[in-house]
# Entry
Amino acid sequence: MTDEPQISLRGVTHAYMTDDGPLPVLRDLNITVQKGAFTAVVGPSGCGKSTLTRLIAGLMFPDEGEVRLGGKLVKSPRSTVGMAFQNPVLLEWRSILRNVLLPLEIVANDLSQSQREDRARELLALVGLEGFEEKKPSELSGGMRQRASLCRALVHRPEVLILDEPFGALDAFTREDLWQIMHELRHEEEFTCLLITHDLRESVFLADEVVVLSGRPATTQEVLKVTLGKDRVLDDLYTPEATDMLAHLRHQIQIAQGRGEELAA
Amino acid sequence: MNILRKAAIPIIAIIVFVLFWEWLVWVNGWPNYKMASPSDLGPAFWKFRWLFLQYGWETLWRTVAGLMLAIVFGTLIGMIMGFSRTARDGLYPLLVGFNAIPKATVVPVIALMFVGAHDMNTILIAFLISFFPIAVSISIGLSTLEPEYRDILRSLGASKFTIFRKIALPKTLPEFFGALKVAVTLAFIGTNLMEIVEPHGKGLGHLFDSGKISADYPLMFAVLIALAVLGIFLYYVVVYLEKIFAGWAERAET
# Structure
């Protein structure tokens, strides 16, 4: 079992039913993420990236093909998954600490209340939210809310972390702060991550591998191995090596968009 | 200081209003059958003080009972419409149509259906007139819940009921209390409608009717003021409950 990839999509094809008949969004999509790896998925907008997250989370099922987590076929949602979205969706009536504790109220585990709180506080401290535990989400900035949302996604020690454009709505500097925090989280916590993004710099800075999806219906167009080292700093993005990767990805996205236009015509 | 200011502003507003009213009647030289002045009301209240207490209580408890029924039934209908698109499509025209019927016309129908059951009839009208805003607000609150809110729990395998209890219900509370503020005054209208249109010797509506029959105009005005006071009282009970249960929705003043 140990050599099974943590996330595996094989020949995944999916279409939505609309009034004008089926609308194919994914076609014969293959993605493999090894245990502990960090994969970013980029692609033109509207190419079915969010559908992908819902398939992996077991919130939806593909028309064809199979989605496996840790070798097991995904048939229903499972507690070994953590999710964060562009909208941090914190519960306004709960304190930050109680927001982070939410998954532990659902997932059956044998932790005592104080152990749960210790775990939540430890994560909050890790993302720099120490001292904000008792604040309400409305008292925090957008970047801080998103950090709390990451803590909630990780509090139950999921094997798989699914991030659906979590930094998309933040300003450029806050986003870069959160990239650093993602690196720190990855250093401290054990998880396999799939990040959906439309920011190429983000994908190169955070991931080990970048998957480029084609225009709708999306299929795997290109897989790029990121050759930057494990410990990355923002300056690494301005090296010739990174610039080459970014240029390559940019070119791939243009191809993907071109294909999308062809299909629309 | 702040609390003092908070209490002083509405009290001053009421005093100014009463003085203006008194002045208006005085300057126009209106007789009290055209417009009673605030100074006429004191004696009217005093003369019928025990009746005011008794009838006021009857009006109050039947209004609250009708409102409770509206909360239970309105929440139920709201939940059904909030969770099921089919139910929403099917129930909306029915509800809107029902709500459009003037309740004054329903009063005699109800009175005929349940002859003699005055308390029940009154509660029924208070309920019928006030459940609509509650049902609509709950259904809108539930149907506009962003899917991500559901997904954070659903992706962990939480049941529909857990999602409702932990997320959908608390998230809908601000809308619910907004509707309840409307419903609370509507329920009063319902109670009095029954008391006045189908008099049965109970409630402030009956006292109003007695004032009309005996041409005691200050009494009629006094009843209106008593109703306003009861309405204000119930409204602030709702505001108080809202502060407790949905206080988080209030933004700090900036």
Summary: Helices of chain A lie at 49-56, 96-106, 113-126, 142-154, 172-188, 200-206, 240-264. The mean pLDDT of chain A is 84.
